[in-house]
Design a protein that fits this description.
Length: about 450
């Protein structure tokens, strides 16, 4: 409860600002329990609805979190300080394998695709009121979904996978609701959930995806949504296997009202087949981004799902940006239809680097994980020490604190730009930075 700090204000905005000032100054420490709304309203001489509005603003900004009758507390780290801000400064001459980027050499040139998109636009400029989804992009995306066994459903476009996840969560959940999220998991999702005023229920992950028992516990504890990465899980490289998909479907069958969000950003650069969970609950969405295959600056993701969810997403989108640029859509169509990216070759290239590093570390007594994608996760006992020693050896890696909630410490290495000839040297440096012989089958 509050001790020396006094919250002030007569308007909701002033009360919220007062709390933020206390958090920023350190007077309201992480975990501080805020007064009940009626109690604070009485102390300030305002209507309880005014305090409720202030608390709602603070939840939406990610400053506080609400846990039902347990009340509202200052978050451990306000969302105004995103996890990506925890990056280590990379000195000159140090190889940066911390950022999570694809290999630019494996991305297609956009010159021809953008020129083709401009010519097409010149012939028929996009105007208000048109279908947000270009018909030929819809056909390509639907064919891809059908080939991978994703159930039929309406489609929508968002500005990347994270934008899609945000829109889906926003149209289904309310502040205070709980979301089951992979741990370790994508740092942006770990930031997004509390920024929306939602609560994270962490779910353990192994090579085959979210652990079924952990998902069952999260759902039993009240999670109203589950976010699953199908392949190339960030940071561990996990990919949902056929056996794990069956287990998770059995769990979800007992919770048909749970919102399922399936992130398949690995489509296009991962050679493992998709084992989808789509359709396991009444409300579901399957999301595919173009970022890792065609380039991060092509801010486009295709969504399909149940009619209610997609209708809500598209309706809310009309009141915001309206649609994703047709110019970007035409460029993606050109890249996709022309086969500008040899997806099998890209998958092999990332696989050679990832599997090579995991194998080299195993030979040196270091446990590492990386079943798919471009990242390798290495459990360690001292993140700071490992990161510091690797910097001294010429390698910048990502500290695991950005990607975890309750799981043990680790470091993430993005191997997309590591040449096969460099793997042995990197493995030597990492082995020297950690204690060898780490064991265990889960990332916790």
């Amino acid at each position: 409860m509050l001790e020396d700090y006094r919250i002030v204000g007569r308007r909701a905005s002033d009360i919220a600002a007062s709390v933020e000032t206390g958090v920023g100054s350190g007077a309201l420490a992480p975990g501080t329990l805020l007064p009940p709304m009626r109690e604070l309203a009485g102390a300030l001489g305002v209507n309880p609805n005014t305090v409720a509005a202030a608390y709602r603003t603070l939840r939406e900004r990610g400053v506080i979190e609400t846990d039902g009758r347990r009340g509202s507390r200052v978050r451990a780290r306000p969302s105004s300080t995103p996890r990506d801000a925890l990056r280590t400064a990379v000195p000159a001459g140090v190889r940066d394998i911390s950022a999570g980027n694809p290999d630019a050499a494996l991305l297609p040139s956009l010159d021809g695709a953008l020129a083709a998109a401009a010519r097409r636009y010149a012939q028929a400029p996009t105007l208000y009121g048109e279908d947000p989804l270009a018909p030929d992009l819809a056909r390509l995306a639907r064919a891809g979904f059908d080939a991978d066994g994703v159930p039929a459903g309406p489609m929508a476009l968002t500005s990347g996978a994270l934008d899609g996840i945000e829109r889906v969560l926003s149209v289904h959940l309310r502040p205070g609701d709980a979301v089951a999220v992979e741990d370790p998991g994508w740092s942006s999702v770990l930031d997004l959930v509390p920024a929306l005023g939602l609560r994270i229920l962490p779910v353990a992950v192994d090579d085959e995806g979210p652990v079924a028992d952990a998902v069952a516990r999260a759902l039993a504890d009240g999670a109203r949504a589950l976010v699953v990465t199908s392949r190339a899980q960030n940071p561990t490289g996990a990919a949902v296997s056929a056996a794990r998909a069956r287990e998770l479907r059995e769990v979800l069958a007992g919770y048909p009202g749970v919102l399922l969000v399936e992130d398949d950003h690995g489509h296009g650069f991962v050679d493992l087949p998709l084992k989808t969970l789509a359709g396991a609950t009444r409300n579901w969405v399957h999301i595919r981004s173009t970022a890792k295959t065609y380039g991060p600056d092509l801010r486009l993701a295709v969504l399909t799902g149940d009619e209610v969810t997609l209708d809500r997403v598209r309706g809310r989108q009309r009141l915001g940006p309206g649609w994703v640029s047709r110019l970007l859509q035409y460029a993606v169509v050109e890249l996709w239809a022309s086969g500008a990216v040899d997806r099998a070759a890209v998958a092999r290239a990332y696989g050679e680097r990832r599997d090579g590093l995991v194998g080299a570390l195993r030979e040196r007594g270091v446990r590492a994980y990386g079943r798919s994608g471009m990242n390798v996760w290495v459990p360690v006992t001292d993140e700071t020490g490992v990161v510091t020693r690797l910097l001294a050896a010429g390698w910048a890696v990502a500290a695991g604190t950005r990607f975890r909630v309750g799981t043990g410490p680790g470091v993430r290495l993005t191997v997309s730009q590591v040449a096969p000839s460099e793997i042995a040297g990197l493995a030597d440096a990492l082995a020297a930075a950690v204690r060898p012989g780490l064991t265990g089958v889960r990332y916790d």
